[in-house]
Write a structure and sequence with these properties.
7 strands; 311 residues; Rossmann fold; globular; alpha/beta
Length: 311
């Protein structure tokens, strides 16, 4: 696969199912360093923004949350800790085993979560209606026809006022147009960026990297209201506050979207992204997590410097 072209869409997720191993989740899958430190009881920067986005949904009471492609289970645990009921799906047995570990010492939280080892394309696993559906770093792993199935199922099982929150990396336009420019800028400064930015796992697993146009068009087949924007994990709300030009779209590494059956107010999304999440700790885990806030701020600071360095 060349840098300028997406992977061939002939593969389906079922054909690469065996690639999703414990080694992948603990050495390559985004946020693995944070998982290693906190065993799923703290969100990495990427998932922190998804949790913030979810706060724009302001319905009172306990929500029913659908975590699609739940991976190691950090998001499932987070929403359970907020008092919500969660269905968390992943077709990789190793992912489900790691997700079980997120609830170590927290049997009450575990009771609020249905962990299911199954494909998100299986209609039988959906037991809606759901108030909130999440797909964080999932859709690039599904073939276009599988995405049609996923979007149809989510749209069918979402409450009328519910929301479907999506993050995908990479923005294909970033790898096609923005990243080569960054390589040239880095080279001019005497620094080196690899010709192929994808890891070996990404080369194997990213069978359907998304461009903004294609992603918006496919979501719009199933949801009458779609807000889609590009950004990074330092300031993902910038594209909502400012008008992005072509260069901005090309240089933003991630795509975010909220799809719904009812209109979504931009100001509510921006406010949500500007509001830090609240980590709710159970009695069993309160003591080991007392220093999370300070340590997490250090991680965020280091990540921000790494991102800015490549600009």
């Amino acid at each position: 696969m060349s840098l300028h072209s997406p992977p061939a869409p002939s593969l389906t997720s079922e054909q690469i199912r065996t690639a999703y191993t414990k080694s992948y989740y603990l050495t390559d899958c985004g946020g693995y360093e944070t998982y290693d430190l906190y065993q799923g009881k703290q969100l990495d920067l990427r998932l922190d923004w998804i949790a913030r986005l979810a706060s724009f949904y302001q319905a009172p009471g306990r929500w029913r949350v659908l975590d699609l492609g739940c991976g190691r289970g950090e998001m499932a645990r987070y929403f359970a800790a907020q008092g919500h009921q969660v269905d968390a799906l992943d077709y990789a047995p190793d992912a489900i085993a790691l997700a079980e570990g997120c609830f170590a010492g927290e049997p009450a939280l575990r009771q609020q979560v249905r962990l299911l080892c199954a494909s998100v394309t299986d209609p039988a696993v959906y037991q809606g209606p759901y108030d909130l559906a999440l797909a964080s770093d999932l859709i690039e792993h599904l073939a276009p026809t599988e995405l049609d199935i996923l979007y149809h199922q989510v749209a069918s099982h979402l409450t009328p006022g519910g929301a479907f929150i999506i993050h995908t990396y990479p923005n294909l336009w970033y790898y096609r147009y923005g990243y080569p420019k960054r390589r040239r800028r880095a080279s001019a400064l005497g620094e080196h960026l690899p010709a192929e930015p994808r890891s070996a796992f990404e080369l194997q697993m990213h069978i359907n990297e998304q461009s903004p146009r294609i992603m918006r068009r496919q979501l719009a087949r199933y949801f009458p209201h779609v807000v889609l924007w590009a950004g990074d994990h330092v300031d993902p709300a910038r594209a909502l506050r400012e008008r992005f030009n072509k260069t901005d779209w090309h240089e933003a590494p991630s795509l975010f979207a909220i799809a719904a059956h009812q209109p979504v107010a931009l100001e509510h999304i921006i406010k949500a992204l500007q509001t830090p999440i609240t980590l709710i700790k159970s009695d069993e885990t309160a003591a080991p997590m007392q220093n999370l806030s300070t340590r997490w701020q250090k991680i965020r600071h280091i990540f921000a410097k790494l991102v800015l360095r490549t600009r």
